[in-house]
Amino acid sequence: MRLNPCPFATSQMPLRVLLFVPVLFLLSLSACITLEEEAEEVNPLDMLKADSAIVEDSFSLVYRAPKDAKNLSPVAVYALNFWSPTFFEYASPNVRSAPLQRLNDTIWFANVFVPRNAQLMSYYVKGVPDEDTLATKNFPILDNRTKRPVKATFYRVAQAMLRSKAPVDSVLAKLRAELERYPDTYDAYILYWSLYYDSKGRTDEALAEIEAQMAEARRLRRNNADLLQAIALTYIYGIGDKVKANRVLQDSPDSYLHPLNLYNRFSIELDVDKRELALGVMTDKYPSHPLTPKMYQEMLFYYIANQKVYADRAAIFAEKVWRRNLPSLRQNGVMTAAARYLFDYYGKIDLSRAMPYVKELLRLDYDKQVYDAQTILLFAERFAESQEYGGLAIELAAKAMQVLESKEPTSFLNVGAEREFVSSAIESGEAKNDLIGRAYYCIGKAYRRVGELNNAISNLRQAAKTCLSRRAEIYYELANALMNIDRSDAQDYAYRSLAYNASPERREWLVRNFKPRLRPKETLQDKIEQIRASMPENAPNFSLKFIDGSTSVVNAQGEKIIVLYFWSPASTLSRLLFSDLQLLHAKYRARGVELYAIDADSALSTVKAAPADYGYSFPFATADKATLMAYRVAYLPSAIVIRNGAVVARHSGYERDFVSRLEADVQQFFATESTTKKKPRR
After folding, report:
1. Do 345 and 467 sit in the same domain of this protein?
2. How far apart are CA 500 and CA 387, in angstroms?
3. Cβ-based neighbour number of residue 113 at 10 Å
4. Which of 207, 242, 366, 553 could form a disulfide linkage to 268, CB 3.0–4.6 angstroms apart?
5. For 124, phi and psi rounded to 5 degrees?
6. Half-sphere exposure of 676 (CA within 13 A, CB side)
């Protein structure tokens, strides 16, 4: 493509770029309609049938009524799609209405404002037949004075053609027409290069052609900052090469400090000091930009997920988040994550040092954006381990119970960007019931620490009815509470605790306190297996759908160990554990362990969109809602270990050393096998 230069006024590239690039990746390009080439002169009456015209950030809703229509008061209903901080994602369409005003005898209109982070998708007139609410009506812009097409006319036509699934060649022709007339329509550069690269099969030859055109455009426009920005965005979203985008923008300091490019540098940088430097610049220049809290979240969770290396640095960074106290950090759950980590970090050293992060919570008007029910219970569980702070644990658990029993059905959720619960578990009430059970568990645990055993036992038994995520801990507490009251019941709960958590420490605890009597040739593992078989935590067979579209029924009844890891693209921590899961998979795959990463929310849409980011050897799959409900999966991330048709271990929600604890649950069976296969001594 030969692009002819023409004079233009330099202007800042609009955020609207982001609103149109995703269309390229989200819509198929099968042939459906064709549009003729528009002439320079356009009759304005032809534009005012039942169609629309976009002028900058406003949209004209136009309706032509029949001549014999009387007593009209037409109302237009239109839908806006709002762009969200995560690229290529839109929130649910926002439907609005606007009364139309009379222009003349037959024409009615209304001008509506389209926000910068939104895209008007469709509109219709109430009560008018043959109006399609899903039809996007996006027609050329006309200059109000000359009634001639102006800048971005053919670019918007190309967008409309894309949404209408027009042939790719027709769309590219419109974009070429735009660039020949207005070479400074930088949105058109991005769409043209991205679409051309995709239509040619993303080959090296197509990339070479595009890069030659980029070089020529840079030569003609003398490395204009907006052009460099367009080239960088093409590399990031159209071609998928963030490194080249970073190199291009180094030639222009203004473009290099654009928020999208700061985020790009932050994403591709491996050195944590340089990542924090990019974040610092972003905070200083764009404190209210939606990508700023996203960067804070990713940085904090990166440190948290790598605590073996960055435990102290995570605390320093969390302190920085806490001191900044930006509204956007509260609204996106970053302050919540910082408070949780700081409480856990200092609580392991001395619980008194964790108190500053709890004092706000003790107020009646505490910040509910930071302290949701999940956070309150995490604090209560830690305090319940201490006799000194047992009373505080009970008070916090009671506060969490008030939140959970409020009239708002989802008031217990953290409203931030980080997803902590599976959607189906929220809909079914499983998540809420589990949290209520955890509140009873905290109260019972605290009462046992202070010696009030009757209150402890009654609350723990109530917890056992609804709480699945802490079942092993609940049975452990019941066994200890009943040890001097009913020895037989205590031992029964002790075995149940091991059925859900057969760690070496728990085995040693049971042997030391209960001295179990075993039949000849019977092992403790045999006894645990018997308890598991008698408990209702069965593991049914289930069907998985894999990324290539194939489906398979997994047999959960055999002796093979199956690990189900439930994650979501909206759960940052669940994605950060993939590298550790890869090591677990590589270590035990040859020994017959099957690991499946199950997307619990988005049907693998992110994996399909960026397969290079998910290049792990374990399979990615999706499961239907019935499977999620059958296995009672509520938290993100979650892991379930299955053997012989039973759930032998369960991990609900992120915890420190998540994968290490999961490996211990897998390792117990191989450790048992190695001891049983040893030859007897002579």
Report:
1. yes
2. 26
3. 10
4. 242
5. -150, 165
6. 12
Helix H or strand E encompassing 180? helix 168-181
- From 203, 148, 158, select the one nearest 179 (Cα to Cα): 158
Over the stretch 177-228, which tens digit does the pLDDT of each residue have? 889 888 888 888 999 999 999 899 889 999 999 999 999 999 998 888 888 8
Same domain, 493 and 565: no
Max Cα-Cα span within the chain: 109
- Backbone φ, ψ for residue 613 (5° rounding): -80, -10
Q: Which amino acid is at 124?
A: Y
Please give the Cα distance from 482 to 491 (Å, whole number).
9
Quick one: CA torsion of 310, 311, 312, 317, rounded to 10 degrees?
A: 70
Domain region containing 372 = 282-534
Q: Phi and psi of 136, rounded to 5°?
A: -80, 130
Write out pLDDT tens, residues 6-45.
333 333 333 333 333 333 332 332 222 222 333 334 333 3
Token pair in block for residue 165: 């699934």
Structure tokens at 590: 């040859």
Q: What angle do CA 491, 654, 303 make, to 5 degrees?
A: 135
Rounded CA-CA distance 116/479 in Å is 60
Tell me whether residue 219 is exposed, middle or buried, using C-beta atoms within 10 angstroms of its C-beta: 0 to 12, 13 to 18, 19 or more: exposed
11: left (phi over 0), alpha (psi -120 to 50) or beta: beta
Domain end call among 162, 192, 217:
162
73, 42: one domain: yes
- Who contacts 244 (Cβ-Cβ below 8 Å, separation ≥6)? 235
Peptide bond into 637 cis (omega under 30): yes
515 with 595, same domain: the answer is no
Which segments of 310-467 are extended strands (E)? Answer: none
Which residue do the tokens 């895209």 mark? Answer: 119
Contact between 654 and 574 under an 8 Å Cβ cutoff? The reply is yes
Which position has the token pair 């009209």? 72
**Final residue before a domain boundary, out of 162, 185, 214:** 162
Q: 343 and 470: one domain?
A: yes
